[in-house]
Design the sequence.
């Protein structure tokens, strides 16, 4: 369905460090990184798409998160959801919802919510039983 998801960032090095650490826990492979542009992208398994891309906005204006916009990443276990959430907060993310079951979505939905260093809302979710 998706080719790629693009998230605007303001400080490439800071955001690259943030996402590299988050995606290492989730097991996502970095596909490219070009500090000259600056942009970086990670691919899904088995790849090569969809991609998740971070970059400064093309129009050179400051990035701004959308109201009601969120990107959710799949985690293979509830423990990974918890680890990513804790790591994100250590790296400076703002909490939006601690890890836990959200049965209003479905019986096994275990998710956590936070905002990255530029205010983009992110979720990490596991859809399987513990």
Sequence:
């Amino acid at each position: 369905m998706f080719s790629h998801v693009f998230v605007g960032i303001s400080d490439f090095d800071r955001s690259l460090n943030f996402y590299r650490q988050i995606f290492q826990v989730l097991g996502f492979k970095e596909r490219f990184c070009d500090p000259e542009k600056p942009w970086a992208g990670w691919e899904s398994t088995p790849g090569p798409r969809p991609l998740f891309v971070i970059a400064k906005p093309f129009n050179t204006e400051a990035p701004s998160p959308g109201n009601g916009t969120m990107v959710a990443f799949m985690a293979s276990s509830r423990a990974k959801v918890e680890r990513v959430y804790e790591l994100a907060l250590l790296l400076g993310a703002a909490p939006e919802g601690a890890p836990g079951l959200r049965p209003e979505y479905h019986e096994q939905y275990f998710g956590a919510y936070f905002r990255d260093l530029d205010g983009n809302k992110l979720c990490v979710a596991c859809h399987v039983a513990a």
